[in-house]
Amino acid sequence: MRRILRLFLVVAIVGLGVTYLVVRPRTLPADTLSRLTGDAGRGELVFWAGGCASCHADAKATGDDKLVLKGGQSFPSPFGTFIAPNISNDPIAGIGAWNELDLANAMIRGVSPEGQHYYPVFPYASYAKADLQDVVDLRAFLATLPADPTPSGAHEVGFPFNIRLSLGGWKLLFLKDGWVVDGDLTEEEQRGRYLAEALGHCGECHTPRNALGGMESARWLAGGPVPAGRGNFPNITPAKLDWSKADIVEYLTSGFTPDFDSVGGHMALVVENTARLPEADRAAIAAYLKRVPASE
Q: What stretches pass through the bilayer (predicted)?
């Protein structure tokens, strides 16, 4: 019996060790960004394309207050309620002490400077496709923004979702390389794909999710229920979005639909962001949406 117990203990220890090796947080090599230099001017475009202010500024912020990234917005979901953290330039409450590699690990790998998995409510499943130069440029721009000492709120997440190590398994399942929409795309469509699938993370809202919260890429941008339980995100594939390319560009610029309705809800914040991009980028997003496979 003692031998059996010892054998069981050894197997259990080995099993735990192997499991940890599989799900442990994985960061980028230390020299990943060694040849890159950030440009704050380019980083501002990355900031608006990435929608940073939409989640990390106060929900009622307007004008320059959009650049005070003190966090605090809450995002209810079936897994708990997540609170957007302070990512202002404050070195204690925010990310003022972060370097470029810290930001790259957060966006590309979903790992904090302390070596913990981030919850995927932070859309690193999309940001993982971001160009490293864009990440470095974004860090340069974030360094120019105001510092705010407001402490980040704690997520309201219960067992078992509060076990962050389990997110390593989630990443193995859902953190994928490669583009969803592939094939012979024009240069404009490729730019639109980058903005929509990576920086703009359109799929995070407009793609339905499975029971584990992973995006169902087979129904890319086909819409789905709002995680808070009220309403639905619309289908923006050609199966439902029959607007012209010019209509889509206008919507991403002014927020007006072809029927002279106006954008509402959280999408209004998205349009505030896209309106700040060059018109060529809005046209690229429109061109990309025309190439997305139709899905009911």
A: 7-23
